[in-house]
Write a structure and sequence with these properties.
The protein is an alpha+beta fold. Helix content is 31%, strand content 31%.
Length: 154
């Protein structure tokens, strides 16, 4: 069963990557909670391919890691002996992701839909404060996810 899920995830990554390379926007659903409150489980993201020159600090980037799709925020760039490396991190994560090259980026989030309505892609000041709290408090994280789950099912 686990091998089937892993295979399905890898095939999904390849299909999304090929669609974006072909110039098509792609819709993906958020499954994890590393970007709460900017992105919640169940949110629908529209992702568009971008080139390295189009990337800006704060962008929500889609990439594949370990055979799964991941969306994290671009927080900076490193220049490793002439090779530009991008640094991303989930808004609630304590540590940054390993640096990656720009060719590992599949696309950038251009639209977020939650419960049938559009929500801003750019994090508000309130959202930034909440993500800081969630990043440093497991209790606050559990409460926020529970409240979100209750809202979705009511």
């Amino acid at each position: 069963m686990e091998a089937e899920v892993e295979t399905r995830d890898r095939v999904a990554c390849e299909l999304v990557a090929e669609s974006l390379r072909a110039g098509h926007d792609v819709q993906v659903r958020v499954a994890g909670s590393s970007m709460v409150p900017a992105l919640w489980p169940g949110d629908a993201l529209i992702v568009r391919a971008v080139g390295p020159a189009d990337l800006s600090r704060g962008d929500l980037l889609l990439f594949a890691r370990g055979g799964k799709l991941c969306t994290h925020r671009l927080i900076g760039e490193l220049d490793d002996s002439g090779a530009l490396r991008l640094v991303t991190r989930g808004d609630t994560a304590l540590k940054c992701d390993p640096p990656m090259s720009s060719d590992q980026i599949l696309g950038s989030v251009v639209s977020v839909s939650r419960d049938g309505r559009q929500v801003p892609v750019v994090a508000s000041r309130r959202a930034k404060m909440l993500s800081f709290g969630i990043r440093h408090s497991g209790f606050l994280r559990r409460v926020a996810l529970k409240v979100h789950a209750l809202r979705r099912h009511s």
